């Protein structure tokens, strides 16, 4: 297991070449700034310093580029989930919070592209990548439930979704640390991780718990 994690963290995944990675990075930046529909494969090649025709040696078409960009987020989530699975529940929760906060601050384009451009993928690819995202959320839910065994599974799931949603929202802030008074990346990362931690560890009011988990409704007295 340790060797597998080391392999995921270090080195280049099979099939990756320096030029292919340059194209993926360029596509990520352009899709984020200009949008998928307003970006051509020629634009991506130019941004990567690669001639238009040479792009097709690495990617069949623009959708193939979009798929490769979004698979980056899947890889990062799979790696984080695999790492969390090896840790005790509280350490796993801390790891998920810190790693996702880092992801959102350092790679905001990935979240925004998934939210805004996934409709441009084929149904098959969208479902496959979406399945990876659901697996990641399931790991969060499982971890929150392990840390807080008093919660119903539905409650743990809602709290996990709220924490993830809050951290993902930083995608739309367009942070620029050069702007006077703007919070820097490290400050934002710490703020997101700590706020997410408070969300998943908060005690739900009885009325809210009943709304989330109807089976508990009979035990709740609303005054």
From TrEMBL:
<dbReference type="GO" id="GO:0003700">
    <property type="term" value="F:DNA-binding transcription factor activity"/>
</dbReference>
<feature type="domain" description="HTH tetR-type">
    <location>
        <begin position="17"/>
        <end position="77"/>
    </location>
</feature>
<dbReference type="Pfam" id="PF00440">
    <property type="entry name" value="TetR_N"/>
</dbReference>
<dbReference type="InterPro" id="IPR050109">
    <property type="entry name" value="HTH-type_TetR-like_transc_reg"/>
</dbReference>
<dbReference type="InterPro" id="IPR023772">
    <property type="entry name" value="DNA-bd_HTH_TetR-type_CS"/>
</dbReference>
<dbReference type="InterPro" id="IPR001647">
    <property type="entry name" value="HTH_TetR"/>
</dbReference>
<dbReference type="GO" id="GO:0000976">
    <property type="term" value="F:transcription cis-regulatory region binding"/>
</dbReference>
<feature type="DNA-binding region" description="H-T-H motif">
    <location>
        <begin position="40"/>
        <end position="59"/>
    </location>
</feature>
<dbReference type="InterPro" id="IPR036271">
    <property type="entry name" value="Tet_transcr_reg_TetR-rel_C_sf"/>
</dbReference>
<protein>
    <submittedName>
        <fullName>TetR family transcriptional regulator</fullName>
    </submittedName>
</protein>
<keyword id="KW-0238">DNA-binding</keyword>
<dbReference type="InterPro" id="IPR009057">
    <property type="entry name" value="Homeodomain-like_sf"/>
</dbReference>
């Amino acid at each position: 297991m340790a060797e597998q994690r080391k392999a995921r963290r270090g080195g280049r995944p099979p099939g990756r070449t320096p030029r292919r990675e340059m194209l993926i990075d360029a596509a990520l930046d352009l899709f984020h700034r200009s949008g998928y529909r307003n970006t051509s494969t020629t634009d991506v090649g130019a941004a990567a310093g690669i001639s238009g025709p040479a792009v097709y040696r690495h990617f069949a078409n623009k959708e193939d580029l979009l798929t490769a960009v979004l698979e980056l987020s899947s890889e990062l989530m799979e790696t984080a989930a695999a790492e969390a699975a090896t840790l005790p529940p509280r350490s796993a929760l801390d790891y998920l919070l810190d790693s996702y906060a880092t992801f959102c601050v350092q790679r905001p384009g990935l979240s925004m592209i998934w939210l805004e451009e996934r409709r441009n993928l084929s149904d098959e690819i969208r479902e496959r990548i979406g399945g990876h995202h659901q697996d990641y959320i399931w790991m969060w839910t499982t971890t929150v439930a392990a840390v807080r065994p008093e919660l119903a599974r539905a409650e743990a799931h809602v709290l996990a979704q709220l924490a993830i949603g809050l951290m993902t929202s930083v995608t739309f802030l367009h942070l620029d640390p050069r702007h006077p008074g703007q919070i820097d990346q490290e400050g934002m990362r710490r703020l997101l991780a700590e706020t997410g931690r408070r969300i998943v560890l908060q005690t739900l009011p009885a009325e809210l718990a009943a709304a989330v988990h109807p089976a508990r409704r009979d035990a709740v007295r609303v005054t």
